[in-house]
Amino acid sequence: MTRDAIKDLILEIIEDIDEDADFDTLQANQPLRDQLDLDSMDFLDIVMELRKRHKLQIPEEDYPELASLDSCVNYLEPLLKNA
Amino acid sequence: MDIQNHRIVITGVGLAAPGADNLTSFRKQVLAGTSKITEVDLRYFGKAPAGICSFDETRYRKKKENKRGTRAGCLGVYCANEALVDAGLSIDHYKRARIGVYTGLTEHGTIETENEVYNISQYDYNVDYWTHHHNPRTVLNNPAGEITMNLGITGPHYSIGAACAAGNASLIQGVQMMRLGEVDMALAGGISESTGSFGIFASFKAQGALGTAEDPRQACKPFDMSRNGIVVSEGACIYVLETLENALKRGAKIYAEIVGYAMNSDARDYVLPFSERQTECMQLALDRADMKPEDIDILNTHATGTKQGDIEECKAIRELFSDTKNTYINNTKSIIGHAMGAAGVLELAGNLPAFSDNYVHPTINVTNLDPECEMNNLVLNEAIQLDSVDTILNNSFGMVGINSVIIVKKHS
Hints:
The structure holds 2 protein chains of 2 kinds.
Chain A: H1 3-17, H2 32-35, H3 40-54, H4 69-79
Helix pairs in contact in A: 1-3, 1-4
Chain B: E1 8-16, H1 23-32, E2 38-42, E3 46-51, H2 63-68, H3 71-87, E4 99-105, H4 110-121, H5 134-138, H6 142-151, E5 157-161, H7 166-179, E6 185-192, H8 198-206, E7 232-233, E8 235-243, H9 244-249, E9 256-265, H10 275-288, E10 298-300, H11 307-321, E11 328-330, H12 333-336, H13 343-351, H14 354-357, E12 359-360, E13 384-385, E14 391-398, E15 402-409
Parallel strand pairs in B: 3-7, 4-5, 4-6, 10-11, 10-14
Antiparallel strand pairs in B: 1-8, 1-9, 2-3, 6-8, 9-15, 12-13, 14-15
Helix pairs in contact in B: 3-6, 7-13, 10-11
């Protein structure tokens, strides 16, 4: 999966969680939580969706890697290289 | 503890029923006797008559929150906000720490659990796919808690589990907590999301107690010879409760004063009701209201359309009201189905406007009255107008032998 495809995947999951989410001014290098109406339960939703869609088991200690869109892509790129 | 004999009044009503999303339209519906019972198609179970609510689910909270929470929470948040609007109350009128939220539930978490088991069945029953939302959605205080989160209420909140007597039980709890001085205002009522659970339908069916008919609007037929069971409905009704003193001080519209209530237990069977205890429950509520049967203008029955249940309640009513000439008897479930934990409070709401329009709404779907259900002044198929309606007695009973009765009086 390309970096752009991973980015789209994350945004698609967030949109499923909150269809009113506004991505227009989203800065990829800033924490998602500061820019969108997301809390810890929503991040667990992202983890669950990645598990359901791509059988990824993300260990709890790696959750901080999902903080921003850029860090999500960096973290997921090697895990989804064959996806 | 300072127990005060406050007079408690209803000053706001928020509701969602199959066919109505506010008290005005609900009253029109029950007076016309218009059933909006439809048919649902449930996973594993198939089709069945059921009552489904249609209301503006995002009027008071975002879609995201509805998705995060439960259907019961969604119904509760809508009704609690509507009740406050109806009462003309800002949430800041009372201290937020002095407001209590009490929700009556027949069951809770059944749908969420069924859905999760189905969800993991798609992943070979691997519980790694079980949602982290399950526990906050299924804790019994969930709907009441969702209301407090939505409104920023920091007073007590919890649910009352009392089977299908739960709506009345919660209203009673609200009155008691106000009299104990625990809270200054209460949002109290009942909620049911049961139509989403195949298990509830399947269980009633297994019990031989699920109502059916070719036309789903005719499936709920209490007192009729052809009745064959319960029609499950979703619904909710939340009341604003205030002390009479505070309500008068702010010039509030007062729907009714809660003047009597009672609860008791059959202590004998899981599902079969028992007329003797029901009679005792009504008598206790009358005693507490310092009333006699002839003081009641409308008696709203619990009858659900099951063979035995209807007969037992009619027997209980005849025991007290057979010599009463001026008590008129009706049944709201025939129009909206059985809204389970919301039944008692929704049915009371369907009758409350009688204090201003003096009508008794009809019981519908009775074409062949069961002789064992005959009662004086049973209002069938058409509403009737009385000279004056000043009191309503509302019955609400439930499984495992729980009975509740509320008596309200017009405030004048």
